[in-house]
Each structure stands twice: as structure tokens, then as C-alpha cells.
Amino acid sequence: MTCYLDITKSELKIKIKEIESIIENCTLCPRNCKVNRLKGEKGFCSLSNLPKISGYGPHFGEENILVGTHGSGTIFFTSCNLTCVYCQNYEISQLNIGNEISFKSLANIMIELQNFGCHNINLVTPTPQVYSILKALEIAIEKGLKIPIVYNTSSYDSTKTLKLLNKVVDIYLPDIKYGNNENALKYSNAKNYFDIARNAIREMYNQVGDLIIKKELAEKGLLVRHLVLPNNLAKSEEVFKFLAELSKNTFINIMDQYYPCYKAYEYPELSRKITKDEYENVIKLARKYGLKRINTAY
After folding, report:
1. Which of 176, 203, 229, 257 is most buried by a 10 A CB count?
2. Is residue 254 a contact partner of residue 295, using CB atoms and an 8 Å limit?
3. Predicted TM-score of the model (pTM)
4. Which residue, 289, 227, 291, is CA-closest to 261?
């Protein structure tokens, strides 16, 4: 059964109230801006307390185990708490193109995606909008929502916030971008990224465990993404070392689709696509650490 159907209405209301108190002096994510978003004050993410999205619909470009036959019900949230210089979706994540909507409208979108036959609700860049998501989920449950929730994140998440998502999220989908703090700060303006991401992913794993797949669809668990960067800038070996220590059954998708865009050409080391040899060497590293469930581009 979907996780959130096991919690009571009162339990969900308590979670919402706790998140509400967090955004009154916002420490929802590791940025710790301490602005009062309930009063319209805006921090790093430039968001209020209402949901802001750039689009939604059945998505067929995700992992096969999320897409199935009818697509992953994807909601693209506006803004991000990272500012990656090579972001492929920078119009949404950094230029903040999108529309602010009501909690009820977001709930209706979730129901609409379920009615389309989507296999899950895929929340893309949810970290700054956890309050809005829970408020909408409360409404959507009353309307009959029952498909799994996917938390599709950059891994720059506070464990305090993640703990409040326990028994709400079915599938955690973190993209762990770097295996050191230095490159994360330089290319994504994210202080202590690797330390924070490891703590966040440990919390995710403690909640949902290894990925469970039934009838070729992800049902519950941790599904990790890792994008290979040119010149070993992602420090992939450290990523795999950590994931293997977490669980050698960690399901990991090693992605090869990096291409230079946005501000990447300002950094010569990021100004090209990866080579086949670079990608193959990263796969070898994952296998070196005994990771058993590796999804590759070929």
C-alpha cells in the first residue's frame, strides 16, 4: 500500500503544522535563510508559502521502472536550492519561470495525473516546496489519491525536513551530484554539499530501504541518480564508495547525458560532453565497490 494512506489525518496535520513553523523562520533546506515565508518574505529560493510550478504531465523520459506503460506523473516545481552553472533546466530552476497556484490546484493536478493512468506522482525539485506539497497532498488524499509519491531531489536536503516526510514519500529519487564539497561549492554554489547529501540519503534509506520493484514498476525504496561530469568533476568514486557502504543493493542510475549549457562555457573544464571512456570508467568504479543494481545508458 502507498505510504501516505497508512497515516492518519491527524498525523498528517501535525506534519503540516511542523513544516509551517519551519517556514516561518525558514530552515526548510540547508540554506537556512530564516525568512518568514508565511508573510511573503523570500530567501534563496525566491518562493512564498504557495506552490509554484512550470508544468506537469505524464513523463516518459524517466527510468523505465518509473515510466511503465502510462508514464510518470511529473510535476515540475519552479526554483531550486542549487544554482548549477550547467543546469539544463535553468529557466525553471534559476530564472524561476512558472506560475504560483493554490494548494487545491496542486491537489487537482495530482488527481488529474492519476486519472491519466500515471504510475506515480513525481515531484521534481520538491525541496523548497515541501509545505505546499503536504498541504496539497492532504486535499488530494480526500479526493482519492492512491499512487506512490516520488521525491525527485538534488540531495541538498535537511534531515530535519526529511524526517517529517517519513511515511509520506514512497520512492526517494536523489541525484547525488558530487563526491566532494569543493566542486559542489564551485559549480552549484552549495556549501558542504557532499556532507549534507550523505546525511540526507542515509535518512531516505532509513525510511524506505532498498528499491522494491514489482511487475517492472518501482513500488517503494531508494533510487539514486548520478550524472557523470567531464574531467571527473563529479568525483564519482567517492559517491560509489558511500553508496556501497549504505547498501550494495542500492539501485543507481549512472547518467551519461551531460552537455554544456547555461553558464558551463565559462568553465573550460565543463565546456564539453563526456567521452565514452569517461563513462565506462565510472561504471567500472561502481562495480569496483560491489554495487549490484546499476542502470547504465547501454
Report:
1. 176
2. yes
3. 0.97
4. 227
The domain over range 3-295 is classified in CATH as 3.20.20.70 = yes
Asked if pLDDT for residue 218 goes beyond 80, the answer is yes
3-state secondary structure of 23: helix
111, 142 contact by CB (below 8 A): no
Domain boundaries, the chain: 3-295
Tens digit of each residue's pLDDT (9 = 90 or more) over 52-68:
999 999 999 999 999 99
- Secondary structure class of 123 (helix, strand, coil): strand
Over residues 155-162, mean pLDDT = 98
Q: Which of 281, 280, 273, 234 is nearest to 257 (CA)?
A: 273
d(CA 153, CA 130): 11
The H-or-E segment that residue 162 falls in is helix 159-164
The dihedral through the CA atoms of 183, 184, 190, 193 has a sign that is negative
Question: Taking the CB of residue 8, how many other CB atoms lie within 10 A of it?
Answer: 8
b/e 214-248 (16+ beta carbons within 10 angstroms → b):
eeebbbbbbbbbbbbbbebbbbbbbbbbbbbebbe
Give per-residue pLDDT as tens, 168-189. Answer: 999 999 999 999 999 999 999 9
Of the chain, the end-to-end C-alpha distance in Å amounts to 33
CA dihedral 52, 55, 56, 60 (to 10 degrees): -130
Alpha-carbon distance values, 63 to 71, 275, 287 (Å):
10, 22, 20
Distance CA 220, CA 213 (A): 7
| Nearest residue to 295 via CA among 57, 67, 58, 3 | 67
Contact between residue 104 and residue 140 where contact means Cβ atoms under 8 Å apart: no
pLDDT over 90 at 113, yes or no: yes
Question: What local confidence, expressed as pLDDT, does residue 298 receive?
Answer: 78
